[in-house]
């Protein structure tokens, strides 16, 4: 009798383990990714070269806009006329094509890599496009007033393993994509950076602008770690065309070396 009870108890325990095991696996699989730490043992380590994929840089609507649910930017009716004009003139009016810095959040999802640089208490991003960079200042310092920078003024904090950045002071000349989506100088962005695996970084940006938009809205995309051996940020140079407008040139273009040819300065000085 005792033997039967022992066998029965063992069978019940085995069934309980068999039932509980898949649930525990699911819980483990669904747990948030925990990134490595910097040498202080506390700060999440986001260092590396990252790049977005896809075509969001052409038009963020219907691609990475997640709120509103229809994927459309909630423009005020009076702002739509400028957006339509931008779209019509996009092949010549897009400031990024003229070598102006892409701005926030556009610099994150342009088809060029970016590099995150970190140490405990310090965070910066260098973007390949147009030599842009951002230094993230710790939260608590007041924002700069009466400025209109291409890359804005950034304050940040850590919320567990998510970096949250508050960005203001951006020029209204910047576009959000090649389709001409835009904002005013009242533009305010709250960014979130969160690693979802060793080689993926989720980027989310919540935008508000009482001049241009009828309500706040959000975009979200994924950046992928560039893992090729020897990968690095390269020079993205521009030269003036015949009309005096600066245009991008290929990194392999021989004219790319003109910037380092200082001999022309001495030649000009001798005249």
Number of domains: 2
Shape: globular
Question: Oligomeric status of the shown chains?
Answer: single chain
Overall strand count: 12
Compact overview of the structure:
The protein has 271 residues and is α+β, with helices and mostly antiparallel strands.
Structure description:
The chain is α+β, with helices and mostly antiparallel strands. It folds into 2 domains: 178 residues, no CATH class; 29 residues, no CATH class. The protein is globular. The N and C termini lie far apart (112 Å).
Topology:
Layout (H helix, E strand, L loop, with lengths): L1 H29 L17 E5 L12 E3 L12 H9 L1 H4 L12 H4 L4 E6 L2 E6 L5 E6 L14 E7 L2 E7 L19 E10 L2 E9 L8 E9 L12 E3 L5 E3 L14 H8 L1
Parallel strand pairs: 5-6
Antiparallel strand pairs: 1-3, 1-10, 2-10, 3-4, 4-5, 6-7, 7-8, 8-9, 9-10, 11-12
Descriptive tags:
271 residues; alpha+beta; 20% helix; two-stranded antiparallel ribbon; disordered N terminus
């Amino acid at each position: 009798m005792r033997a039967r009870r022992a066998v029965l108890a063992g069978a019940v325990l085995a069934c309980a383990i068999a039932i509980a095991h898949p649930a525990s696996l699911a819980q483990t699989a669904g747990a948030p990714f925990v990134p490595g730490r910097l040498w202080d043992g506390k700060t999440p380590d986001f260092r590396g070269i990252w790049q977005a994929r896809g075509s969001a840089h052409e038009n963020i609507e219907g691609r990475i806009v997640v709120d509103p649910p229809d994927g459309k930017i909630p423009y005020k009716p009076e702002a739509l006329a400028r957006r339509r004009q931008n779209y019509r003139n996009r092949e010549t009016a897009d400031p990024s094509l003229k070598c102006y810095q892409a701005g926030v959040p556009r610099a994150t999802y342009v088809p060029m890599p970016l590099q995150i640089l970190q140490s405990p208490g310090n965070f910066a991003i260098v973007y390949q496009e147009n030599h842009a960079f951002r230094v993230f200042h710790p939260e608590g310092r007041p924002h700069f007033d009466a400025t209109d920078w291409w890359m804005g003024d950034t304050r940040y904090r850590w919320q567990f393993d998510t970096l949250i950045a508050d960005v203001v002071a951006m020029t209204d000349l910047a576009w959000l994509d090649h389709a001409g989506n835009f904002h005013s100088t009242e533009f305010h962005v709250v960014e979130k950076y969160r690693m979802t695996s060793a080689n993926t970084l989720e980027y989310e940006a919540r935008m508000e602008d009482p001049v241009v938009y009828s309500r706040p809205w959000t975009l979200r995309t994924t950046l992928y770690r560039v893992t090729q051996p020897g990968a690095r940020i390269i020079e993205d140079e521009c030269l003036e065309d015949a009309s005096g407008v600066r245009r991008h040139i290929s990194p392999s273009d021989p004219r790319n070396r003109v910037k380092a040819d200082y001999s022309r300065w001495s030649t000009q000085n001798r005249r």
